[in-house]
Specification:
- With 353 residues, the protein is an alpha/beta fold.
- It folds into 2 domains: 2-8 and 253-352, Aspartate Aminotransferase, domain 1; 15-250, 3-Layer(aba) Sandwich (Aspartate Aminotransferase, domain 2), CATH 3.40.640.10.
- The protein is built from 11 helices and 15 strands.
- A 7-stranded mixed beta sheet has the order 2-10-9-8-5-3-4, sandwiched between helices. A 4-stranded antiparallel beta sheet has the order 11-12-15-14. A two-stranded parallel sheet has the order 1-13.
- The structure holds pyridoxal-5'-phosphate (PLP).
- Residues 7, 65-67, 90, 133, 137, 163, 165-166, 184, 196 line the site of pyridoxal-5'-phosphate (PLP).
């Protein structure tokens, strides 16, 4: 089965062997307060920073999902309100959860085909956290490095948190331009779901300590205190942490992966731009995602394409949120090989050209 679903997505085939190794090394039943776990955790934190180009002074944390990160950040880094800039379902959901926890939190919705309108934002001084989604998996848009830089420059005194779930480990992100970045591993990391990685700047940790919120098992300050010794507040997803270490060690550095994905994204956009019965959902090339493509057609055709693809052992991504029925999505993730995209192209040329 070829799998182009944008999460859970195709696993690196090596995962199969890593799983056997994990079993044989006894890591799966080792206590999470013991030396073997701490060694693993320390090693993986080092690999995450090196391989993904994360500044040395950023702190790395493990949670169980990106959704959990949404909650942790609101609970631990805001007392009054956060501000959410979004154009799709994931960003909107984060905003909605924030408003349940902190009713004064605000959302700013922008158009699918527009760059994030940084100069139009009116963010009040008492905003404690600015949140946005780097790669909106629901509609295949992405915030450009220039926009992130503008946001950083315009609101230097406010913490900025970035949901990079479907771009981290695929693209070379300039982490220094925001305080918090997080991603779950079932997207560009090519691993099974159930683990997320979060990177926090020294300033974010300073702020968390100032607020001192410790009402939850996963309060950021508690996570920070445990992580000083490479431990977690609860028994973590050890098998996934192990897989993460192995995958990162065996993959190229993020700079190389970014170059490959960027080139492949361009070729996929060129290819999918040529059809008449369906079109790219995002018309503005500047805001198109490099890691998730969204294609739009009539509901009937979308249904037909997905079913016919499955019949040929090709899994395409369903549409999401408001685009659930009239789009389908194609992941451009590192674990998927160029040959697999060639097969995908042959399928579309054969049936829909
Ligand atoms: C997949 C995804 C999530 C949710 O990830 P979970 O691991 O299921 O919590 C959040 N944000 C974005 C942008 C995503 O693509």
């Amino acid at each position: 089965m070829l799998n182009f679903y944008p999460g859970p997505s195709k696993l690196y085939p090596d995962v199969r062997n890593y799983l056997v190794d994990a079993y044989d090394e006894g890591i799966l039943s080792t206590p999470h307060r013991g030396e073997q776990f701490v060694q693993l955790s320390r090693a993986v934190v080092g690999s995450i920073k090196r391989r993904l180009n994360i500044p040395q002074d950023y702190y790395i944390f493990f949670t169980s999902s990106a959704t959990e990160c949404w909650e942790v950040l609101i609970q631990s880094l805001t007392k009054h309100k956060s501000y959410h800039i979004y154009n799709g379902s994931f960003g909107e959901k984060w905003c909605q959860y924030a408003q349940k926890l902190r009713p004064k939190s605000e959302g700013f919705q922008f158009d699918l085909n527009s760059p994030m309108p940084v100069s139009e934002l009116e963010i009040s001084k008492d905003t404690e956290l600015i949140c946005f989604t780097h790669n909106e998996t629901s509609n295949g848009t992405q915030v450009s490095p220039a926009c992130i830089l503008n946001l950083h420059n315009r609101f230097r005194d406010t913490l900025i948190a970035v949901d990079a779930t479907s771009s981290m480990a695929g693209l070379n992100l300039k982490m220094i331009k925001a305080d918090i970045w997080f991603s779950s591993v079932q997207k560009n990391f090519g691993l099974p779901a159930g683990l997320a990685v979060m990177a926090c700047s020294p300033r974010a940790i300073f702020r968390a300590k100032q607020i001192g919120e410790k009402n939850h098992y996963n309060s950021l300050v508690s996570m920070y205190e445990k992580m000083l010794n490479y431990q977690t507040t609860h028994t973590p997803n050890v098998i996934n942490i192990y897989l993460l270490k192995r995958v990162l060690e065996d993959r190229p550095f993020i700079k190389t992966i970014d170059l490959e994905l960027t080139a492949r994204a361009q070729s996929l956009y060129n290819f999918f731009g040529q059809f008449t019965d369906f079109k790219l959902l995002v018309e503005n090339e500047e805001v198109r995602s490099k890691t998730v493509l969204a294609l739009q057609a009539s509901e009937k055709l979308v249904d037909d394409i997905k079913k016919r693809a499955l019949h040929h052992n090709i899994r395409l991504g369903n549409g999401y949120g408001p685009w659930a029925r009239n789009t389908f999505r194609i992941a451009n993730f590192p674990a998927i090989t160029d040959e697999e995209y060639e097969e995908l192209k042959r399928f579309f040329l054969h049936y829909y050209a």
